[in-house]
Write a structure and sequence with these properties.
Three copies of one chain form a homotrimer. Chain A is of the alpha+beta class. Chain A has helices spanning 3-23, 33-52, 56-60, 79-89, 98-106; strands spanning 63-70, 75-77, 117-129, 132-143, 152-166, 169-179. Chain A has a six-stranded mixed sheet with strand order 2-1-6-5-4-3. In chain A, β5 and β6 (169-179) form a beta hairpin. In chain A, 39% of the residues are buried. Chains in contact: A-B, A-C, B-C.
Chain lengths: 194, 194, 194
């Protein structure tokens, strides 16, 4: 083989290798801001469904094994502790507001049905660095736990979140919840975001 | 050409081909969770604008040709049927609540202007598999169809969605709407999500 | 070198080059709908935190240097002008509603704490073309500037946005805000989206 030939072949082979390496991020497993944000948004939404429908097993599965849920007034670390702590505070599924449930039984003109409460997340800000992420977001809650089953906004606040990617899955390692309807649980008066 | 030479060339050509194939997903058409979710979120939002502004043509274009809109109390399949069925239920554009419109004409201290209603989507959960997707999300509605044009939350519920990618575009193949302000239209008391 | 040989080498080299160019979008800097949308959603959310927490420097940093904020009744171009104009309209941080603040000082049964106001964005629709984007979205505002610090929805409307990618960062080049609680500031009765 001529020397020139060999050189050319090495260059072509080298370029090919570089290309293969450069293309690596095109894999489905690629980690980009958009991909990670999409997964985290999905996590944040699944958390809400699990919370509002009293599905505690799914709820705690959105946290890392040693994840922390901190609602300022109370704080639990680890899935079992979160399940026990939060579970004790939640009304049984379908009984968002037992008193209103009582009250509405009295009404005859409207058929009775269970009251519900719904948490919503908005304004999600995420800073992602490898397999760690920091988040800020607003939340607000509405419910119809009144005798008329009338939809009503009743509280809001914001989240300070830390997330980790464990075995390819994003999970909360820490969620801190500020609630602006409780003097003791309101958050900062400075921008908690960036 | 020497045999060695030929071999080397085949290897280089083979690697190049593999690289080209491996890089395919890097195209703009690449399908990743993040890309598909972004397109579907956009679809979900466009649906809302079209609905609230009475733009029925755009609204039905968010469904597949044989898509189904199921509001529990009623159900329509196919774009034309959805258009006719939903169109019959919608107030003419700019007349969200004709009665309130009437009422507000009586007020002299505040200039009259049309009332509006706005549907919002939140907590979007999406499971995507190739050109099919399943979704869950919350919705809530606010309006100002009262004599003071005061913003008021009036209803909420959740969606169960099925989507299909048709010619590169995500569309609803089925949307089922639960409404927690109607005894007959409320959804499950079990977590409808995962 | 044989002519055939040379030809084959040129073909292989050509394919390699094409592959390298085709793979370019696989870089972390790749611009796809999903990546750009993720960055823009983050921008839209950061804007809200900065606005509600009175962080004017961060707020104006979400605009391009010569960006425009148009709230129909008023309009400012350029970061300094936006800062001055909007700053003059904002209550000092932690005094969302000075009157309610006064009023609540009178109440003895509930400890006094600062009132807050929170803007939320939903239904984000984005059309992205290279380093320019056009957006539509809903907004709604809630606050607790009343003596009971009760969460209440108080206004809503929609945005018409233009965004630019400057040095790799998406920024607002123009935001126009429609407010459906003000006769003069309400938007179109036709679908402003697509």
């Amino acid at each position: 083989m001529s020397k020139l030939m060999t050189k050319v072949l090495f260059i072509v082979a080298g370029l090919t290798l570089m290309t293969i390496l450069a293309c690596k991020p095109a894999d489905k497993d690629l980690s980009t801001y958009g991909e990670d944000r999409a997964e985290i948004e999905n996590l944040q939404a699944r958390y809400m469904f699990a919370l509002d429908f009293g599905d505690l097993d799914t709820f705690v599965s959105t946290f890392t094994e040693d994840g922390t849920l901190d609602i300022i007034g109370m704080k639990w670390q680890g899935r079992e502790n979160i399940k026990e702590g939060l579970g004790g505070m939640m009304p049984p599924a379908g009984e968002e507001n037992p008193e209103a449930q009582e009250a509405s039984e009295a009404t005859e003109e409207k058929p009775l049905y269970r009251a519900t409460g719904r948490h919503n997340i908005s304004n999600i800000v995420l800073k992602i660095d490898g397999d760690k992420a920091v988040g800020r977001a607003y939340w607000f809650h509405m419910g119809n736990g009144n005798p008329d089953r009338k939809a009503a906004l009743d509280s809001y606040g914001y989240y300070e979140d830390e997330m980790k990617k464990v075995n390819g899955q994003w999970l909360f390692s820490k969620r801190r919840i500020y609630n602006e309807q409780m003097a003791e649980w309101i958050g900062s008066d400075k921008n908690p975001c960036w």
